[in-house]
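Input record, target 12 of the design panel.
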């Protein structure tokens, strides 16, 4: 099957690209398009060319798997220039996503028509690179510098409607795209053609504009290099001639392509795409999930409900008493109301999502549910009582999951009829926002149940990682080691604020101590106290000393740091130093990079132990857990990737 085919609709030629799965710009595809330009230019019958794609999407970009190899002709910038310079105008007909090189090809076309549910964008910075075929040079000429800066430095795609308003596309179409684009072509031929994008003028903003963008981008990038490099390309594009700007962009692209950051981001790209479809489950058909229920309407339960609702599932909330039902429903409503007031959804959408949740105290209401997730208090007896009810009332094939983060799911499932339908589903707070989902099967869990929960993860747009059973599963087990190591540095005399600053410098949004102050020190404390009460030997941590002194974090006005009432800015605390002075032996002085290296090495060492014990399948799984559940900087690739040469 050739990747490029040509059909005719009278004077309009239709060039169809068919290179599954996402029509990535492989060498064969570039060659096919290269030849199509010559063929159609030479054909006197052809007045215009519609470029359309088969399958799920328009051209989704360069072929990421070719990035490690030497570039092969025809090079993409040359192909885009050739389409742009064709004797007949080309019209890009976009469905799915026109991303990166795909959008660059579309900008080589004289017009762009997109279906309503299509998106366009320049995601290169998310891969640690900049556009390599005119993205930063043509976008400002097409839609102005401001739009171009947002598109190329954020990497976020725009919906067809927004892209149309911004001037990135010429028309939004509904129904049959080929027909719409052909009709558009005929209409366009009746009028004088616009200039090719490269020939259009660009208005260069003043120095202040670039200064402000730089400031905002450095802050948002948290150490990622590509967004600033993209901004430099855009400035060049606004201030230099087209050809010079193209050369500068290409040079930047080739320089970044072989960088450590690009390597790390490609690793994450492929890990994220592999995670939702594990090879072992490829042949196992999931059960359909059309309705769900959540037991427990606290912060976690409400977040899970919000995630399920956002994926379109009707949800039943079960609580013990009527007041708790009311509180739980209010928690859910608040999540959607906040989203509406932030403008991420309309008030009508928020209302519809809220109304799709029904509350009840009757487990009998769950007789038809396809999936039930328990999110009640972390207490084994409370959880067992819930599953006793679920065992009585749910369909024998309904998937039943516990959202425990520390308890052993094997103890929770004891006595449940049809235990093959049971497993742990560990969401991360806030559950409607955080992408990580740890999937924790018990020995009885069937492949079908596992397959169904991976399908659920895809539906919820989560990043699923299967974890074996151990204390803390993958993520919290590494967190525990990370915190202990951070406390270890403090015991040796490294100031608390220096540890946090070092980890921020590494790319985390927060260091380990300020993060604990935000979340509260008491949860981990109570858990350690529980273990102590059960007779386990759990040494006193520095955090325990603070909690015993009433310092539980921001909510008590102080934890590792002091906080003033109206400010969340951490201030180093003399009280803390007094409380901890007996534990601290000053002496060690470490620069920020050395602190970060030491702590990341600890994370990776725990990750390696987790792999050795078979708790996680691959180093990439551990990297995904840290990136999507714990704020590990994506551009570092995760702790396993970042330390691969050292391990
Ligand atoms: N190259 C190679 N393989 C790709 C690919 C790509 N660009 N995009 C996706 N795949 C594979 C993916 O690994 C998976 O494989 C399958 O396609 C389906 O993907 C010069 C420098 C288009 C929105 O960053 O955002 O252009 O696991 O599961 O949910 O300036 O794929 O089946 O074997 O994600 O329907 C810029 C990335 C490149 C686009 C579709 N482009 N892709 O989502 O499917 S840089 C991107 C996506 C560039 C130029 C430069 C999504 C999608 P497998 P999927 P989906």
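The sequence produced for target 12 reads:
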């Amino acid at each position: 099957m050739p990747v490029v085919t040509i059909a005719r609709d009278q004077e309009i030629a239709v060039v169809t690209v068919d290179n599954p799965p996402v029509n990535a710009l492989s060498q064969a595809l570039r060659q096919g398009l290269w030849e199509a330009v010559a063929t159609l230019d030479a054909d006197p019958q052809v007045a215009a060319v519609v470029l359309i794609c088969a399958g799920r999407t328009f051209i989704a970009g360069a072929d990421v798997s070719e990035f490690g190899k030497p570039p092969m002709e025809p090079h993409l910038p040359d192909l885009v220039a050739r389409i742009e310079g064709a004797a007949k105008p080309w019209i890009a007909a976009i469905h799915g996503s026109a991303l990166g090189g795909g959008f660059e090809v579309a900008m080589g076309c004289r017009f762009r028509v997109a279906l309503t549910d299509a998106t366009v964008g320049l995601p290169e910075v998310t891969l640690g690179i900049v556009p390599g075929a005119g993205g930063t040079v043509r976008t400002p000429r097409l839609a102005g510098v401001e739009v171009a800066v947002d598109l190329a430095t954020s990497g976020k795609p725009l919906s067809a409607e927004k892209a149309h308003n911004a001037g990135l596309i010429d028309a939004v179409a509904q129904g049959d795209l080929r027909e719409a684009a052909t009709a558009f072509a005929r209409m366009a031929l009746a009028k004088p053609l616009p200039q090719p994008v490269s020939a259009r003028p660009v208005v260069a903003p003043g120095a202040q504009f670039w200064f402000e963008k730089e400031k905002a981008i450095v802050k948002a990038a948290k150490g990622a290099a590509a967004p600033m490099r993209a901004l430099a390309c855009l400035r060049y594009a606004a201030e230099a001639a087209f050809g010079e700007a193209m050369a500068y962009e290409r040079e930047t692209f080739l320089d970044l392509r072989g960088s450590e950051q690009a390597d790390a981001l490609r690793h994450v790209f492929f890990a994220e795409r592999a995670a939702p479809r594990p090879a072992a489950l490829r042949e196992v058909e999931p059960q359909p999930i059309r309705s769900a229920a959540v037991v427990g309407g606290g912060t976690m339960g409400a977040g899970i409900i919000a995630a399920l609702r956002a994926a379109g599932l009707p949800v039943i909330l079960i609580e013990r008493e009527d007041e708790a039902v009311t509180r739980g429903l209010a928690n859910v409503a608040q999540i959607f109301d906040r989203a509406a007031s932030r403008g991420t959804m309309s008030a009508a959408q928020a209302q519809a999502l809220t109304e799709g949740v029904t509350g009840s105290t009757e487990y009998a209401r769950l007789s038809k549910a396809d999936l039930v997730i328990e999110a009640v208090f972390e207490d084994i007896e409370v959880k067992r009582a819930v599953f006793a009810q679920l065992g009585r009332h749910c369909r024998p094939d309904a998937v039943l999951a516990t959202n425990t983060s520390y308890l052993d799911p094997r103890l929770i499932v004891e006595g449940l009829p049809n235990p093959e339908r049971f497993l742990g589903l560990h969401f991360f707070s806030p559950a409607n926002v955080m992408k990580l989902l740890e999937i924790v099967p018990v020995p009885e869990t069937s492949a079908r149940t596992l397959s169904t929960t991976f399908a659920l993860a895809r539906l919820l747009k989560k990043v699923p990682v299967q974890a074996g059973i151990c204390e803390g599963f993958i993520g919290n087990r590494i967190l525990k080691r990370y915190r202990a190591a951070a406390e270890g540095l403090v015991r040796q005399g490294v100031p608390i604020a220096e540890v946090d600053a070092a980890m921020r410098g590494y790319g985390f949004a927060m260091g380990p101590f300020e993060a604990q102050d935000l979340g509260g020190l008491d949860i981990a404390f109570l858990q350690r106290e529980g273990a102590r009460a059960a007779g386990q030997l759990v040494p006193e941590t520095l955090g325990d000393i603070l909690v015993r002194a009433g310092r539980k974090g921001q909510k008590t006005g102080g934890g590792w740091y002091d906080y003033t009432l109206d400010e969340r800015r951490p201030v180093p605390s003399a009280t803390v130093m007094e409380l901890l002075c007996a534990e601290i032996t000053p002496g060690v002085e470490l620069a920020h990079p050395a602190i970060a290296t030491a702590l990341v090495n600890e994370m990776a060492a725990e990750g390696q132990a987790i792999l050795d014990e078979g708790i996680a399948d691959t180093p990439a799984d551990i990297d995904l857990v840290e990136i999507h559940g714990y704020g590990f900087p994506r551009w570092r690739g995760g702790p396993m990737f970042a330390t691969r040469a050292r391990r």
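Residues 21-22, 24, 56-57, 60-65, 76, 97, 99-101, 104, 123-124, 127, 129, 131-133, 135, 273-274 surround (2S,3S)-3-hydroxy-2-methylbutanoyl-COA (CB under 6 Å).
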